[in-house]
Amino acid sequence: MLELADFYTPNQKEALKITGTNTPEEAARVLSEFFQKVVVKLDASGCLIQENGVQQVIPVIPEYVHQTPPARAMPFWPVSCMVSIMTVSG
Description:
This protein has about 90 residues and is of the alpha+beta class. It is about 30% helix and about 15% strand.
């Protein structure tokens, strides 16, 4: 199924399950076989990104953390990770 996707931004649990690995770092390595830029969401720890074989954890930016999302607008991507990745990736 991964071959059909342009983007896949799993959380840690999803990444481990779909790759059959034990750590987010291992999962990112496997996912990099399918995607140029890999992002694994690490909940309160931020995001793990991998690009060109280099891994980096982008921490959560506290002022961008959404505290209580309404049920109908539940975010699937932490805003703090998006801002961080945009900043790092330029």
